[in-house]
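Catalogue entry: protein
Contents: sequence, fold tokens
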Amino acid sequence: MQRIVTAAVLAAMLKGSAVPSPEKLAIVGATLIDVSNYGHSTNDIANAVVLIEGGKITAAGQASAVAVPSDTTRIDAAGKFVIPGLIDGFGALRTQGFADAYLYAGVTTVYVPMLLSAQGGDGELKILRTAEPSPRLFLGAAMTGYPQTNTDPAAYAAVKEERLHGTRLADDQLRARIDRLADEAFRGITIGSDVWPDQVDTILAEAKRRGIATIGQLGLTSYPYAIRAGIDALVRNDQYQIELAPALAKLERADDLRAGRAAGHVLCVIDPASNEVKNYAEQLSNAHTALMPALALEATANSLGVPNPWSARSAALIKPSDLDVPVDRATGASGWLASLPPDRREPVRQCALHKEATDAQLYKGGAKFLAGSDAATYGIMPGSGLQLELSLLHRIGLSAREAIAAATSNFADVYGWRDVGRIEPGRDADVLILDADPRADVSAVEHIDTLVFKGAVVNLDHLVPPGTSS
């Protein structure tokens, strides 16, 4: 005989562990939200059934077409809405509190780029791989064009020395590194500022062969070249918008990332409606490449009208020392802005708003987007930081459905990930049941009725007990 339970009853059954063993579950009666085709498809399924067994989704469709086996626990979700578990495409996992905060916010997968060299782009030196419970941890690595032994950020200046005097990595060395990373189950690579165009071609070809996502934070290779070559994603708007700077400023920055002030200034003054921006958007519209702007970084660092990160209930799990340049706990004031001379603060804020306006024009011109929070930079919280990122994607023009797609199905389309991001047979059973309609308001992702993770119902009150506050 089938058991019919509500989320509250299930939670009471799960007192011993936040993430129990997988079950045979049937989510019955909810509206299954379609987030395919970059959020442009609208084939939602009312009164849907999602079957889960062995940690996998085994069926999803209309109730009239999906039979529920008799030995399955039914979750009554009538009047609610179902989407895939969220993916943070640019995160950090430093403590057990980070892991719990991610799950509490419905983030079931976190991609963490490891910092293997200064030239490899942003990344993490501290990664907790033994958290339990924990979202799925996907690791990324840096790809450089020259042998790297120095992880000191001051080595950014070495790009010029490499270019003039270094010995480039040969194609077989680049391929061997990618093969080693693939064998070690890395899920992506960041192509850094010291990688030349012909090396990019080699890296992209081998990464595609081995099923590894490719991300660009480029210097010696132009962004249009990488887009044309088929790179998967470009990360951080203060990086990929550098393409709009004059050629000389870009060359100076390519040699020394600390010397990017001239190029960066262009981002503060270029007309978002200019032909340069339109042409960039047109190239992105016609390409496979997606943008991951990390809007939460600029918005939190520069106080662009966003909530105090410490106001999130799960922030109680985080210590200020866990974050990079955290905001003031009481006021939400940016620690980064406070470190600047008073006369520079408002110009910096206005420049950050200008970058948002440029991203809005790139979206309007057809660019595709992925969601990455860049937690824990400038005090961005794990979990709630991704929810903030979705609201900011909506602020630059994405519909609520498109924003949610940027944190779910788009990763399947852009990175080729076949295990997460969608609710369809064969994928991992990471599912959010929401009380609010995510088609009407992207903040619906903050109203989680039930989280199913790895095929089991998660006791959210076990992660963050009721009454908890930061």
User: Anything to note?
Assistant: Residues 86-415 form a domain with the TIM Barrel fold (CATH 3.20.20.140). The first helix runs from residue 7 to 13. The chain has two domains: 3-83+421-463, 86-415.
